[in-house]
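Usage

Read records sequentially. Each one opens with the input sequence:
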Amino acid sequence: MIPPLRTGLVLGKLLPPHLGHLYLVGCALRQVERLFVVVEHIEGEPIPSELRVGWMRQLVPEATIVHLDRAMPQEPGEHPRFWALWRSALLDLLPEPPEVVFASEHYGHRLAAELGARFLPVDPARQVVPISGTAVRADPIASAQYLPDPVRAHYDLPPGAPRPTPLRVALVGPESTGKSTIARALAARFGAYVVPEHAETMIAARVADPQALTKRDFEDFARGRRASEETLARFGGALLVCDSDALTTQLYAERFLGASPAWIADEAATSEYDLTLLFAPDVPWTDDHHRVDREGRDAFFSRMEALLRAHGRAPVVLRGDWRAREEAAIAACARLLGR
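and closes with the structure output:
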């Protein structure tokens, strides 16, 4: 069982709420025992904050939705006591202080520090669900696929068509073998969402140091990855492309800590996917900011293949050059879908 964190905070305008917001909130909700979502009042707002609060209570009833009903400065340059004002406003408003701040914005680090909390990033690159409130307000019709039904109704759009529960495809293997590149290719080919490699997200956001990874880092990697996968599965589609899995986290924890937390190994042993693509290390190494195990690729591959088979997950092994891997991955997914 994945041990949850205690309390979390998401802060936003949600002007209006869209699937990007619901991805952020869903990832947070699935990592904590209690989540506070603070909806801001904005001067001259085109959609009243009271309406946005009502939408969020309808869309995520599991969260505690809190209304910040007065306008606050939006940038540090707007007020000399910017951070002090925000700290006071939020701590006065929340039923209890948050342990974690979840955000896609750059301010997440500082806001968490002001509140005495930790920062956990969720898709800071905005690649998982590529939409923004600005784009929605500019052209609701063009953005309709990213709008939940209450917001669609606000813009006089019909309810969204039901989407099937997706089949899950896991892309696993050593570093620098093409997993993330081919995940994007599969998403484009089959109209799928990609569950990002959460460890890379945290390292890129400088929440984790790839040269000094800790047990808590690996627990955050595993918890956040699972929350991301379960949230995106709710969005539906033919496929859900998962860049990494719990077994990957387990093996890297063993490699760098000497042992994996037991609950991560338990999740790795019980996770189920409709297709597992295992990438062989027979391509050149490419340096990147989050890659740390150039010399261990062959051993990692052998151990992962053995454990996949022991867990009842017979993988499709991808070898050869980049084009051969992409073609084999597309063919395997097409077979899975009966195409």
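Summary fields computed downstream for this record:
- Strands lie at 5-12, 32-40, 64-68, 100-103, 118-121, 167-172, 193-195, 239-243, 275-279, 316-318.
- The mean pLDDT is 94.
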